[in-house]
User: Which sequence fits this backbone?
């Protein structure tokens, strides 16, 4: 699968308090070549969950 920064992909994200995962959308931040066999993809989960403000904002 070829992905590039700004692509939206589906990724299995694990639950913090359970031994299972859920397929969620994520934004690809960077794609870094690690070896010829695989690449490293940095992705950020897209969520509508409420959260506290970031420190300093």
Assistant:
């Amino acid at each position: 699968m070829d992905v590039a920064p700004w692509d939206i992909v589906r990724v299995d994200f694990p639950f913090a308090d359970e031994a299972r995962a859920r397929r969620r959308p994520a934004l690809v931040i960077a794609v870094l070549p690690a070896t010829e066999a695989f690449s490293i993809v940095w992705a950020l989960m897209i969520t509508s969950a409420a959260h506290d403000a970031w420190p300093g904002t």
Summary: The beta strands are 8-14, 21-33, 39-45. The mean pLDDT is 85. The CA atoms of residues 32 and 56 lie 30 Å apart.
